[in-house]
Amino acid sequence: MFKQVVELIINKKHLTIEGLYQIINIKASMNLGLSKVIRSNFIKINPVNKMIINTKNIPDPKWIAGFTSGEGNFDINIHKSKNKIGFQVQLRFRIYQNERDIQLMKLLIKYFGAGKIEKQLEKQMVNLTIVKFSDIINIIIPFFENNYLHGVKQLDYLDWCKVANLMKSKKHHTPEGLELIYSIKSGINRSRK
Predict the structure, then answer these.
(1) Lowest mean pLDDT among 15-19, 122-126, 140-144, 174-178
(2) pLDDT of 15-36, one tens digit each?
(3) Residue 51 has pLDDT above 70, yes or no
(4) C-alpha of 167 from chain center
(5) Domain spanning 61-191 has what CATH number?
(6) C-beta atoms surrounding 166 within 10 Å
(7) Is the pLDDT of residue 90 over 70?
(8) Which end of the chain has fewer CB atoms at under 10 Å, N or C?
(9) What is the number of alpha carbons within 13 Å of residue 189 lying toward its C-beta?
(10) Are the C-beta atoms of residues 129 and 116 closer than 8 Å to each other?
(11) Of 93, 73, 87, whose CA–CA distance to 177 is shortest?
(12) Residue spans per domain, the chain
């Protein structure tokens, strides 16, 4: 679909209203679709049919690393708790996709032997989520130690691993450890500068 848009631009079709609508119709079927602003400014939107690719197996562990570099998320969830420090720390590994790719999410769960699928109906999204600490320590971290991520995702992963190590040594149960985790959390994902 991306290639179709590039071809329309190369052929200068984007300079016509018909060509612009072709691009918008393609974009409506890609990734998260169209923003509210675009939808409100174009009235005759007809999303194109997107070919569904039924992946039967994971071709290679490095494929997962590359896929995660583009679509994955390593995040740190801190929320109030009734424990002695008043907060609980949870590491989450997630991969988001359009709901039409739910079979791929099931394949990833089978591959890792861990995780669950969460649906976000309002966005027509599904995500693979792994939060069980033993799965993170015994499956996810060893996997990405052997199958490197690329770009900024590798930096997020390394910071996430710092928090995993703090949790392994129970430092997340101390005020100093929790403060350090907050500091690490404030510099990953969209907050990374």
Answers:
(1) 122-126
(2) 998 999 999 999 888 766 788 8
(3) no
(4) 23
(5) 3.10.28.10
(6) 20
(7) yes
(8) C
(9) 14
(10) yes
(11) 87
(12) 2-41, 61-191
Task: Answer with the residue of higher pLDDT: 157 or 98.
Answer: 157
Residue position matching structure tokens 């930096």:
155
Convert 151-162 to b/e letters by CB count within 10 Å (16 or more is b). eebeebbebbbe
Cβ count within 10 A of residue 30: 15
* The two structure tokens encoding residue 158: 């390394």
The residue with tokens 């591959």 is 111
Nearest 5°: phi and psi at 6? -60, -45
DSSP annotation string for 123-192: GTEEEEEE--HHHIIIIIHHHHHHS---THHHHHHHHHHHHHHHHHTTGGGSHHHHHHHHHHHTTSGGG-
Which phi and psi (to 5°) does residue 136 adopt? -65, -45
Cα–Cα distance measured from residue 14 to residue 142, given in angstroms and rounded to the nearest whole number: 46
pLDDT of residue 162: 97
C-alpha distance from residue 78 to each of 61, 90, 106, 127 (Å): 30, 6, 27, 20
- The closest alpha carbon to 94, from 79, 80, 111, 108, belongs to 108
Rounded to two decimals, the pTM is 0.77
